[in-house]
Amino acid sequence: MQTVLTIAGFDPSSGAGVTADLMVFAAHGLYGTACITALTVQSTLEVRTTHATPAAVVEATLACLNVDIPPAGIKIGMLANADNIFRICEYLLQLQLKHSIDSKSAHIPIVLDPVLRSTSGRELIDTPGVAALRDRLLPLVDWVTPNLDELAVLTGETVTRRDDLSRACQVLQNTIDKKFGGPRVGVFATGGHLETPDDFLLPPSGEGFWLRGERIVTQATHGTGCALSSAFLSRLVLGDPPREAAVAAKLYVAGALRTAAKVGTGRGPMNHLWPLLRVTD
Q1: Which of 16, 30, 181, 199 could disulfide-link 211, Cβ–Cβ 3.0 to 4.6 Å?
Q2: Which residue, 183, 194, 142, 150, is CA-closest to 168?
Q3: DSSP E strands, 190-261
Q4: pLDDT, tens digit, for every residue of 207-248?
Q5: Degrees (nearest 5) of the Cα angle 11, 118, 159?
Q6: What 3-state DSSP class applies to 64?
Q7: pTM greater than the 0.85 cutoff
Q8: How far is 84 from 64, CA to CA, in rounded Å?
């Protein structure tokens, strides 16, 4: 069983964050480990407060896990502040250095879900953190999975229409300075807030294409972007090419939305484990 690592915040309602990521990994037959970057006080109704994990603890956690259970893939979500981002960048640089020295070591796909604010509007990363994410972290990952608002913040572009989305993806890809001459960052942008909820995939090759979406009417929409990013990473780790991985991730999220039971009184969680439950039934 391959191991995948989530570096993200803790959502006590389990709709998003590390607990949701671990369920997504399990649903894909992968073993998940976690480094918690922040504790949040939240439910299906709102995020009340956030409390960043000390950067030294983040650094120690990543080092400890890497010695014993090195990952075959990494998903990065909520990061809280610049200090945490700097420690994570150091960790990723060490992984890249090891890969460049040891030609036999497999490349580890890294997917960043740039979580900037909650659905209820609370900021989940400070201003220096946004700058560190954009300037320091983005060049070190393979894929980024922003929604419309996150894409607008990262590019400075207005992103409200279908044409805006594809153009902003290109802007983001072109402005990221990849270190060490590596391939350009791929962008998997979610268009759930568009009139037609199609997503746009822009591989490192720069030849993008649309992925047809479907609007599923449900209150269980908490953490959809988080789950899509984790499912996309899972499929990459399992060997899918990017386009097939994106399509499979969308199908997974659609199934999780359709089979979700009502939990809480607000925007509830999806049914992250639906593929396993289907097999059990």
Answers
A1: 199
A2: 150
A3: 199-202, 209-211
A4: 899 999 888 989 888 899 999 999 999 999 999 999 999 999
A5: 140
A6: helix
A7: yes
A8: 16
